[in-house]
Design brief:
Elements: E1 2-6, H1 9-46, H2 56-87, E2 89-95, E3 98-101, E4 106-110, E5 116-120, H3 123-128, E6 135-140, E7 146-150
Antiparallel strand pairs: 1-2, 2-6, 3-4, 4-5, 6-7
């Protein structure tokens, strides 16, 4: 059963924390790549330890473009999460029939309309789920952030 409701302040906080975490990781990764790819070779060239080859600027631009591709995907995902915060809607699923794929830790379930849905789960949460009991899931509308997973009122994400 699928119900659309408004998100709570705790849900907003969880989405914003998720946005912050992924942004910090992306910026950190980019800074490390910039240091390795540009700053270290720059100092090696300045102190004449190595000699630059012809076409170094075009290769540098090519590397910057390649580094931007993962950032574009992270920014797109964070934009969807931010839209969730602005819109303030989430889906609540009450599942009786669901399946967990143990290889990828992905929870699959089917709605009454026959649509197949999925949410990625951490290994700790998979260990807490008893597949014989009905499950309650709350997922943000656009970013598909898992906000709540439980059998009753205790959120398994907080344990």
């Amino acid at each position: 059963m699928e119900i659309q409701t408004n998100i709570t302040k705790a849900d907003r906080r969880r989405i914003i924390d998720d946005i912050k975490l992924s942004s910090i990781i992306a910026v950190g990764f980019t800074i490390i790549l910039l240091c390795v790819l540009f700053i270290i070779p720059f100092f090696l060239i300045v102190f004449e330890i190595i000699q630059p080859k012809q076409g170094i600027s075009s290769r540098s631009v090519y590397l910057v473009c390649l580094m931007a591709i993962p950032l574009i995907f992270i920014v797109a995902k964070n934009t969807l999460k931010y839209i969730d915060v602005l819109v303030g809607k989430k889906y609540v699923y009450k599942l009786n029939d669901y399946k967990i794929d143990s290889e990828e830790d992905i929870l699959y379930w089917r709605t009454h309309a026959g649509k197949k849905r999925s949410v990625v789960l951490d290994e700790e949460i998979v260990a807490l789920i008893n597949q014989n009991q009905p499950l309650i899931l709350e997922v943000s509308k656009f970013g598909k952030v898992l906000l709540f997973i439980s059998y009753d009122t205790k959120n398994l994400l907080e344990s």
